[in-house]
């Protein structure tokens, strides 16, 4: 009789321990959330890593090499722009919006060439005729091409825009192409990351950059240093082009490489 009571007591104790070991429904939900959050963080890190890799590639190769790169694997272009969009979300002001604001004050008859258009925001915002140019086109309104060799007709546009798109090692050939397609008196607008024009940290001298473009056949109208993140250059194409130019000394624009966050 005493033995059976002891066994019952031991059995009761064991049952109690087993009950305590069973997790509550709320505990299960907490554990399920952890892997999900972890995976999201891992995906974000992998995505950011891919963006930085592609970004470095674009800054350290020619435009033709970049075009071939994306032709071989078009999905990388989408990956790059997703990362780019994420980076831009941290900027207090977007340079493309400043350019759009300026363009809205110009004639609606102006024809615009958007070199390195990305999401083609200029074309989507304005009523002007806009040629949106980029390395890859997922949009029927975007022309896929090397920006040094576009299908645009010579002297056919009023405004050429480079918004954070002077990325190739042969960036000067993009500007030469804009000179070809611009009408005399047409505008050239360039927005670039400010650090690329800080001589104290290895960047180009903005005056030398401006002088090189002027030697190509442009007149410097304005340099806007007011923004913390980017510089805006405004040029107009001279009516009379120099038939024979001396060799232009183009400054090297250092790559804009994003740090891991």
UniProtKB/TrEMBL annotation:
Subcellular location: Nucleus, Nucleolus
GO molecular function: methyltransferase activity
GO cellular component assignments: nucleolus
Keywords: Chromatin regulator, Methyltransferase, Nucleus, Repressor, rRNA processing, S-adenosyl-L-methionine, Transcription, Transcription regulation, Transferase
One example of a Gene Ontology biological process annotation: methylation
Keyword rRNA processing among UniProt keywords: yes
InterPro entries referenced in this protein's UniProt entry, alphabetically: RRP8 (IPR007823), RRP8_N (IPR042036), SAM-dependent_MTases_sf (IPR029063)
Pfam families the UniProt entry points to: Methyltransf_8
Enzyme class at the top of the EC tree: transferase
Comp. bias (Basic residues): 1-13
Biological role: Probable methyltransferase required to silence rDNA.
Entry's family note: Belongs to the methyltransferase superfamily. RRP8 family.
Record's protein name: Ribosomal RNA-processing protein 8
Organism whose genome encodes this protein: Vigna radiata var. radiata (Mung bean)
